[in-house]
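Teaching assistant's notes for section 4

Start the section by putting this record on the projector. Ask students to predict, before seeing the second block, whether Lipoprotein will look compact or extended. Collect guesses on the board.
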Amino acid sequence: MKKLRRIGLGLVASLLSISLVACGSTKEEQKQGSAKQEQKQMGKEQKKLEQKLFKLESEYEEYTKEKGYMESDDYLVFEAAFNILAKSIESKNILQGDDGELDKHLKDLKTEIDHLSNNQAIKAQKRYGSAVDVYEAAIGTHMHIVLTKADITQHFNAVNTIELDKDFNADSYDYEKIDADATEAIKSIQGMPMKRIKLIKEELEKYKASFSTEEYNQLNSAVTSVTSSLNKQVEMLEVLQKESGKDKSTLEENTKAAETQFLDAKEKVSAFESKYDIQM
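Reveal the predicted structure now:
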């Protein structure tokens, strides 16, 4: 009986030992499998960043293929895409105007991406295309340029300059000069500011997924308001081109409308920037 009991106890101990070894082995295998999966995921994130860089390199070649340099409109789009990627990896290699060394900037950015740790690559991929980065890189600067041009509350605004000059010399003002000044001011508004507005709209649409629906609508509404303000100012300048511009009621009505639209745009932009503590 004692022998049988010893055999039984030994068998139980052996089975328990085998079970513990198997359990430990399973846990170790699970741990190794998890590590491999994590490593695989990290490799994917690194690959995604490399693909974004490759796309930038291809766009650079395409933009410069014909003339050997990048047109200003193309550069603004390229700069935004480059800086969004650079910001995602927390690079100091940020473009601030075409310095003629874009190929060097691309090589430097590639080096930085190649030397990212796995954790840095994952962090960068999560950050890529954030609302703040997209706004700062692709929208904010253009928005402020347009707002400055549309600011009819300032004395240097083209409409105010011509109107004040005209009032000061009401009896002897040269209407040919008014016509020339107003024509130049209209060209100025319909040139760069309207081009920037078009660019803002395109960038907003391209990076729409970076913003919440509320944020997208807020910025889109700001663009609509500032566009309306500038269009209203063009109407006022067209009135000032004619002697009928002596009728102050039309100008006052349009001035109020242009100012209201400008202030609405400015308020919406300020609200968005305040939300993220953006300083531009």
